[in-house]
Amino acid sequence: MIGKITGRIEYRAPDHVLIDVRGVGYLVYCSDRTLAALPGVGEVTALYTDLVVREDLMQLFGFLTLAEKEWHRLLTSVQGIGAKASLAILGALGPDGVSRAIALGDWNAVKAAKGVGPKIAQRVVLDLKDKAPGVMAMGGTLAQAGGDALAEAANEVIEMPTATPAASASPNASAQSEALSALSNLGYGPGDAAGAVAQAAGDAPDADTPTLIRAALKLLAPKG
Predict the structure, then answer these.
(1) Which helix H or strand E contains 10, and what residues bound it?
(2) What is the pTM of this model?
(3) Structural domains counted in the chain
């Protein structure tokens, strides 16, 4: 299994890049959002990867962060969602947007991805709703691991210029993770806590942990 590659971008196409790793070229398919964040031709990049092997095809898919890769794995576990549809969803929403949409049950946001109809979008939300809190709770760790690993990988390339690491997870991924943990410790269920944190983070993307907790508690407070 190829879990991560680091090398020089040889060329870019609408849905993939060719990365030269010490003389071996790898075609790596990525979401539109990931492709837009990659450096230009001739520059070095590092991507987490997922290798799909079929009887007549082998394809390598690339991701900027471990969180994005984890959502790809979960999305493709849903019946009717293949790699292409998964990349379309991640390209439209990003990993944080997928977390929020699923935690909030917002299948219309998922439906906004190219080629994803309402029935499939509803299935994604229903099938993955219980798994959203787990990915959100990993957010802080993944953000740190993603940034550190990409920086280290880029610097390990022999006889290549030092690359600027690809973007890691959103700045408040750690805050969302800590807020989710705090709400869980207060006795709120994973699904309710994840939904409240996702909504709070959507309203205030740059909020710190205490602000997210206060906002989420207001959302969870009994109405009336």
Answers:
(1) strand 4-12
(2) 0.72
(3) 3
